[in-house]
Amino acid sequence: MPTTCKIWLRNDTKVYNCGEKVEGTVELTVTETKRMNAIRLIIAGVATVDWDQFRGAKKTLRFKGSEACFDSEIDLLGANGEEVDVQAGTTSYSFDCYLPDSLPPSFEGEYGRIQYIITVVLQRSGRVDKTFTIEFTVRRGLDLNAEPSSIRRPARIESSNTFRCWPCRSGPLVVALQVPATGFVAGQRIPVVLEVSNRSGCKIHLIQLKLVMVVAYTSDTPRVKVKTNRQDVTGAELDQVDDPDVVRYEESILVPQTPVTSTDDSCKIIQIVYELEAELEVGALHQVMKLAIPIVIGTVPLDSDRRESTIMEIES
């Protein structure tokens, strides 16, 4: 029977918040006495990115990158460098380690991931090291009240487009998007006001509101390159009204569970931001018109009294 090693975490869910203590037990089972140089436990966090660049159907380059986010080693046996006999049977070793407060959260994306792994390494003279691993999940909190005060204030963006070439230019399609604040947490609704004035004479085929996660992946091999991926998190489709007067839409977008916004450089090669986006498809060619407002997603909501003041401000 081969040597077996089981890694048990005290937290059965294997989910930890930044700043919490990871505790567990390593159970090593051997069928006969074995001499070990060391038994080490490594708790590591690593971010990796990986994507291919194509020209037509031909792959031309592969971009990669990695970044160590956390690394801690614990000597379970053999800390003094001397060989030690591990007796036949099952031996248990306890371990614990505090996670830093500023770790990036676990993440799995289209072109990269942030993983946290516990590895037990059995080192024996003249033998290849044996390794045993398990993964765990790290969550990070983000208190919106500690972010810049600008996220408490209403935000508005307006755009005007025409859809025919000179000299037969159409009238304008004017679209305005506004929200009472730009910081929200999962479970909250984002109150959205969209105003549309269509004097272009072109039919509006589609109006959508979307919360979009924008992830920037940065490689270091063969060179530094940034690849951006946009993913719709949630959204709503609005009725199309072709009216030269201003049509006002009021909608609320429910924020689902999703990774928090990246607000520091705890992971440089994977950065996550969010946008509230309004998208319209216009005219016979279904030309796309987009407006976007940056949104910060956290875990602790803005103080209710301050949020109410921003909502009253936009409604007035």
From TrEMBL:
SUPFAM superfamilies: E set domains. Keywords: Sensory transduction. GO terms for cellular component: cytoplasm. SMART domains: Arrestin_C (SM01017). InterPro entries: Arrestin-like_C, Arrestin-like_N, Arrestin_C-like, Arrestin_domain-protein, Ig_E-set. GO terms for biological process: protein transport. This is Arrestin C-terminal-like domain-containing protein. It comes from Aedes aegypti. The gene is 5570215.
